[in-house]
Amino acid sequence: MTFKDFKFTEEIQQGLDAMRFEEPTPVQAESIPILQKGKDIIAVAQTGTGKTAAYLLPVMDKAVRSGGGHISTLIIAPTRELAMQIDQQMEGFSYFTGASSIAIYGGGSGSSFEAEKTALTQGADFIVATPGRLLSHLNMDYVKIDQLEHFILDEADRMLDMGFADDIKKIAEYLPKKRQNIMFSATMPPKIRSLAKAIMHEPEEVNIAISQTAEGIMQAAYLTYGGQKNELVKHLLKGKDELSSIIIFTSRKNTVKELVRDLKRMKMDADGISSDLDQDEREDVLRRFRNKRLRILVATDIISRGIDIDNIDLVMNYDVPNDPEDYVHRVGRTARAKSTGMALTFIDETGQRDFQKIEQLIQKDVPKLPNPPEIGEGPAYNPAKGRSGGKGRNKKNYNPRSKNRNKRNNKSGRSNKS
Length: 418
Prior knowledge:
Blueprint: H1 10-18, H2 26-36, E1 41-45, H3 51-66, E2 73-76, H4 80-93, E3 101-104, H5 110-122, E4 126-129, H6 131-138, E5 150-153, H7 156-161, H8 165-174, E6 180-185, H9 190-199, E7 204-208, E8 217-223, H10 229-237, E9 246-249, H11 253-265, E10 270-273, H12 279-290, E11 296-299, E12 314-317, H13 324-331, E13 341-347, H14 352-362, E14 368-369, H15 403-412
Parallel strand pairs: 1-6, 1-7, 2-4, 2-5, 3-4, 5-6, 8-13, 8-14, 9-11, 9-12, 10-11, 12-13
């Protein structure tokens, strides 16, 4: 099957050819025919499976055929980063169509608000927005949305996790009753079905590889104490010049600053992104990373979902995520669209039970690799202990080169091998 089988307009097909889109991914192959029939849909697919194109292409095709000139499609995304990414991808697909779009999100200047107001009153074809920012406009009663045809929720599960359920329902009240509702999500918890029941009409369902990591990802883990992690990062990256694009995820924004500082001291090209940065700074870091002018990006989970950056060689989990689904999204930054990649995770004693839940979710035992000799032995893998740890062995000031420490580990027979 190729994209030509969908019989898109010539303008859409030109955009696909220019972007070298030839064969649809499974979620695209299953979702696009349903959307072309005008039916409501709930599609569940992991990060990196091409779901943005799965909903953009058919609604854009319909807009081109109808001639445009009004707001035909509203896309709601949980974060400004995802809203910007969707808007950028839309620019690629619509290059030959003349369709207009704008990303609407908080954190900008007064001039950006005025630009958004102009688009919402004069009728950009596609609006991509975060919930709170869009409601700010809708509450002022100037948004011309009476001819809307498509209402799309992207990363629906994350939006509900962030507390946007009521905002989404309020937005839906402003929209025409007769519309096509499209929901894309990485998971299908009960709250998603509850929301779907409230705003959708007899939706069809598409489920693609729920909660599974891509086949092309080589996954492995290291058992480490907290004080060993920075040294392990530096050891694993030193001399690995062939890895040109690396993301390191951490759960704490303070760790972002510390690790970036350590990597820069080693003359490594690294920068960080967290909630501490303002919008312009975040956009600048992401732009440099996306354009391959930045090799190592250290980040909190602010970008684990929704940022579509191709050809990432290595994803490193400095901390085990508390939510197993977040692991799928983190490592989903690599091995996108049938490519290959590597994902390494550092497991300290507080994260062992969470990592066991991850392995249960992905239905795979991730190999536990021995620490390099210069790093020192890590904790034994015993997830049954949970988050209680073991007599302070995860202290930040733990010295991995301590001879006494190693002797005690050897006497007890503990090993970091699985």
